[in-house]
Amino acid sequence: MDTQTSNIETIDITKLREEFPILSRKISGEPIAYFDNAATSQKPLSVINAISEYYETINSNVHRGIHTLSEEATEAYENSREKARKFINAQNTGEIVFVKGTTEGINLVASSFGSKVVGEGDEVIISEMEHHSNLVPWQKLCESKNAKLKFIPVNDKGELITDEFRKMINEKTKLISLVYISNSLGTVNPVSEIIETAHSFNVPVVLDAAQAAPHMKIDVQKLDCDFLAFSGHKMYGPTGIGILFGKEKHLESMPPYQYGGEMIKSVTYDKTVFNVLPYKFEAGTPNIAGAIVLGTAVDFIERLGHENIHNREMQLLTYANQLFGEIGDIRIIGTAENKTCLISFIINGIHPYDTGSILDNLGIAVRTGFHCTQPLIEQRFRLPGTVRASFAFYNTFEEIDRLAAGLSKVKSMFL
Amino acid sequence: MDTQTSNIETIDITKLREEFPILSRKISGEPIAYFDNAATSQKPLSVINAISEYYETINSNVHRGIHTLSEEATEAYENSREKARKFINAQNTGEIVFVKGTTEGINLVASSFGSKVVGEGDEVIISEMEHHSNLVPWQKLCESKNAKLKFIPVNDKGELITDEFRKMINEKTKLISLVYISNSLGTVNPVSEIIETAHSFNVPVVLDAAQAAPHMKIDVQKLDCDFLAFSGHKMYGPTGIGILFGKEKHLESMPPYQYGGEMIKSVTYDKTVFNVLPYKFEAGTPNIAGAIVLGTAVDFIERLGHENIHNREMQLLTYANQLFGEIGDIRIIGTAENKTCLISFIINGIHPYDTGSILDNLGIAVRTGFHCTQPLIEQRFRLPGTVRASFAFYNTFEEIDRLAAGLSKVKSMFL
Amino acid sequence: MTESKTISQREDQIVDDFSLFDDWMSKYEYIIELGKKLPLIDENYKNELYEVKGCQSKVWLNAEMKDGMLYYKADSDAIITKGIISLLIEVLSGNKPEEIKNAEMDFLNKIGLKEHLSPNRANGLNAMINKMKNFAIKYSGENVN
Amino acid sequence: MTESKTISQREDQIVDDFSLFDDWMSKYEYIIELGKKLPLIDENYKNELYEVKGCQSKVWLNAEMKDGMLYYKADSDAIITKGIISLLIEVLSGNKPEEIKNAEMDFLNKIGLKEHLSPNRANGLNAMINKMKNFAIKYSGENVN
Ligand SMILES: Cc1ncc(COP(=O)(O)O)c(C=O)c1O
Ligand SMILES: Cc1ncc(COP(=O)(O)O)c(C=O)c1O
Questions:
Q1: Domain limits at D64?
Q2: Mean pLDDT of chain A
């Protein structure tokens, strides 16, 4: 099917898949069809090999070392920071902080920036579709400050109701934090529009770009967002590393989040002077291999090209939507106009857990449950969970055929 | 030299070194002699390959997934936690929290536990020889709480003056945090004795075991420490992962440190219920590969055997001390009775930076500077830095010969 | 329910039944059938108190004593889960609390369920078994009064 | 100091001198000799104000105008660092601020120093050059009054 319907000449999928060793694994006797990409992506050989290469040739602690290995590791580490800067078009590398992942990035902002700008009686705005990682930090911040957390509502298609947002924002609003692309609905939010409104009230905006980083070109200068966080492991890179972008003026004004190691300029028994950006926010020995190889993941994405990735993924999504329609009895949760390549759904009358278990038995990996957006699924959509099939460019039309066949099988077993 | 003077029959060093690919690298045309092990250790093939294997076979997000890959990744992740539990003899895996490293571990304790138990007018005790990562978090905590930070003094040999400690502790003392083995002096501190005294005052004790983990058997039950943190990258494991041990009763009583992901049991728009131990402290997608492969590093250490490692390293230390004595004009900083395998020193009249630069040119990697213990080196020992050669079992007597020859060369060049 | 048989006889029966299937899809089909047939629990037991924690779907479980024997009722919002509880009930229900307490539940290994459901889902399975055994402990000799 | 030569002539001279050495050990030996000979800075300049930030050893640097030319003095607690500053001073000292501002300092690449000192230590080197050029900017035409 790939050869017939795919008109992407720039990506040779069969060859590309060979770069992902795990895709040739078998599960329950079947080749794996991996549709859990929104949870974590698989890794190409270039990324896997770059990790080994780091440990086999230049492994050493970064910064302050004067020996050659340390110099080389530092250079590779800082080169990767520069790649990350370019990847999201930040103005300078001082705005690029290596963190553990999106969750740590957002927690850092909530703790170091949020505590500073949010006070009693103030308001913070997020949306009804936030991942727990972009909900609980603000819930707890507001709790501790006696501030109010407000939620931009979501319509039945899974889109933000921006009219409501414009009614919510006011002079009490001190911060907005929003998911760029929803991990459970697939919705691509109109963040530019929201940032513009927010800035007209002088309110800074944090973007959770965990799902955006693997799927679209991010431009923090064009977006004009104040902070943005994403995870390496969702963009074909290693686990345990991510990026927090922050505008220089904000990062300069914030106290450090953790203390120790390279984030210190000088210290006496009485007093500490902190280092310049971005080091002020990188306490302790960083995930050096992870940081360096995040750069390799960026290289990989740029070699493929954002547009090629996008086109391929949209074809997969369109194809899957079409097949799902033919199966019948499938309710898709999240049908926004502007949507990334994932489908959250339930087969009417069948529990997501049942669907997922049978699919697993057919070698098809989907995620079931709340996808870390429990209030959205439970309170807003009143569901016990959904099944989520999230695609990546390396998925094939044949795999989607198998998914569709699997769902028909599930229907026949349970209904 | 190895064959003649080494009486370790259980470790075949030549064969063992082949497991560390980086050790065959050349620097400035010479085979590398890596003496910066206290900053970070090199990694055996078993560790490097385990990372690739993870990504090539079971990479997936852990917990809550019902598909096979997720099950397998979760199982490997939890198996590794169990290995870490055994490694330090904790009572149960709920006491084993995966963190980024020692620095994050200590920051977590300072933030979640320290803020709770330390109040205005209270006192926290650390020592004069702490790494910045175990100094600045407490300095900042005390600053914010209007509490007092007190330092156990260090004698000229680089040992804690425990008599002074017994005079310092009183009913105002709320917490003690101590380095188990000093990274800049090599001193192995009498932590059992200190913990016993502390507990007689009902004061909990945190141990910074960053340097202990690679060099000695740690037994948290025997030590009876309340918290203990260490880093994977210093014990032959990957970067970006470490362990925080905490006694169950403490961890249970502490608020989470970061919010999001697996640390949540259930959440509504209004309220969050946190997960059980240890998940409560593991927010966001963890460093899955790092955590799993930390277990491989534990396996590696246990295959070699703590005693074999210790014996080998003590022989290297003894040999280096002997050669250093013969060179003359070398002042060793840190001459404690109970010492690990590192030598911090200056050649009288020669700046550490000069020494380090020339050694690097000879393919010999040492660290120079404050080793993240600036107050100890500058305020206590009144030095502009030291040169630190820190050994690991894979170093050889020949490499130490080269180090000694290098130092003689340095002397002849600068004096 | 075959109340005359011992727990281990019932286990053997299930192992026998499962030996007819040679792939997991057929086993699932059988489990689903059992799930569909499971006698439902009263709606008023579907609350926190009767909920089994640690499963990926909601599970409620209750037990009552009748003539010295313990009888279970359960429900879940997922059918596979119901099928699995149904197996557990088939084995344990209608026995003396002391016997239930000591049941080894070896059949779960023998039919390959434990292995097939490792380890996230096995947690859920263990949680169900624990809840059932806790009822048995509650009603067993030591705690009658 | 050969004040009659231009900056680029002085650079060429140093490149010539270094071409005699074919390994880095000999280059270091030469740099160390230069370091030992560097005229010291007054002790009262050894403070924060004159310190060059970003080096692994302490470096202090001052500059003074005499007859329209800028003269540098510097010191460091490490001799290799002193030797390297000595090279910089050799090239830049005694020139017009405008010339110093625009000096390309290409000789550092030619003798392989930049490459040899990458990148932590190169930061220190760049910090020294920047501090020297900043003095030149301060004393150059635009800012005389
Ligand atoms: C004694 C000591 N404590 C703490 C640390 C900090 O460890 P990490 O940088 O891995 O967080 C180190 C290592 O740098 C150390 O040697
Ligand atoms: C939208 C969104 N935000 C935040 C996160 C958290 O990312 P991480 O777990 O890598 O910290 C995720 C992924 O789980 C996500 O999909």
A1: 7-144
A2: 96
Residue B260 clears pLDDT 60, i.e. is over it: yes
Q: What angle do CA B83, A283, A91 make, to 5 degrees?
A: 125
pLDDT band at A65, cuts 50/70/90?
Answer: confident
Q: Does the CB of B204 have a partner CB in chain A at under 8 Å?
A: no
Instruction: Establish if D2 belongs to a structural domain.
Output: no
- Is residue D127 assigned to a domain? yes
Whether C122 shows a pLDDT value over 70: the answer reads no
Distance CA D23, CA B122 (A): 60
Residue B30 φ/ψ, nearest 5 degrees: -110, 150
> Confidence band (pLDDT; 50, 70, 90) for D49?
confident
**CB-CB neighbors (< 8 A) of A356 in chain B:** 66-67
Cα diameter, chain C: 48
Question: What is the reported pLDDT for B328?
Answer: 94
The percentage of chain A sitting over the pLDDT mark of 90, rounded to a whole number, equals: 95
Give DSSP secondary structure letters for D33-68: HHHHHSPPPPGGG-SGGGBPTT-SS-EEEEEEEETT
Is the CB of residue B130 below 6 angstroms from any atom belonging to ligand 1?
no
Give me the half-sphere count of Cα atoms (radius 13 Å) on the Cβ side of residue B92. Answer: 8
Check pocket membership of B357 for ligand 2, CB cut-off 6 A: no
Three-state DSSP state, A338: coil
pLDDT band at residue D114 under the 50/70/90 scheme:
confident
* pLDDT one-digit tens code per residue, A350-363: 999 999 999 999 99
Q: Which of B102, B151, B285, B294 to mutate to probe the A interface, most A CBs <10 Å? A: B285
Count Cβ neighbours within 10 Å for each residue of C50-67 and write b for 16 or more, e otherwise: bbbebbbbbbbbbbeeee
Number of residue pairs across A and B with CB atoms under 8 Å? 318
Locate all alpha helices (DSSP H) within B351-396, ordered by sequence.
352-361, 374
Separation CA A109–CA A281 (nearest Å): 11
pLDDT single digits (tens) B355-409: 999 999 999 999 999 999 999 999 999 999 999 999 999 999 999 999 999 999 9
Query: Are C57 and A351 inside 8 Å of each other by CB?
Result: yes
Identify the contact set of chain C against chain A, taking CB-CB distances under 8 A: 24-25, 28-29, 32, 56-58, 77-81
Structural domain contains residue C48: yes
Cβ separation of D80 and B413 shorter than 8 Å? no
Q: Does A368 touch chain C (CB under 8 A)?
A: yes
Mutation probe of ligand 2 site: the residue of A99, A207, A228, A231 with most atoms within 8 A of C-beta: A231
Q: Is B221 helix (H, G, I), strand (E, B) or coil?
A: helix
The complex's ipTM works out to 0.94
pLDDT for A5? 41
- D56 near B369, Cβ under 8 Å? yes
Please give the Cα distance from C105 to C111 (Å, whole number): 11
Q: Are A65 and D119 within 8 A, CB to CB?
A: no
Burial track B356-386 (b if 16+ CB lie within 10 A, e otherwise)? bbbbbbbbbbbbbbbbbbbbbbbebbeebbb
The CATH number of residue D110's host domain is 3.90.1010.10
Full set of structural domains in chain B with CATH: 3-31+305-414 (3.90.1150.10), 49-303 (3.40.640.10)
User: CA A346 → CA A156, A356, B348, C100, distances in Å?
Assistant: 15, 10, 75, 38
**What is the 8-class DSSP label of residue A113?**
I
What's the domain count of chain C?
Answer: 1
Q: Give domain status of residue D1, yes or no.
A: no
Q: Do chains D and C touch (3 or more CB pairs under 8 A)?
A: no
Whose C-alpha lies nearest to ligand 1, atom 14? Answer: B39
Cα separation of A119 and D103, whole Å? 53
Q: Percent of chain B, pLDDT > 90? A: 95
Active site residue B372: yes
Q: What is the pTM of this model?
A: 0.95
- D56–A71 C-beta distance less than 8 A: no
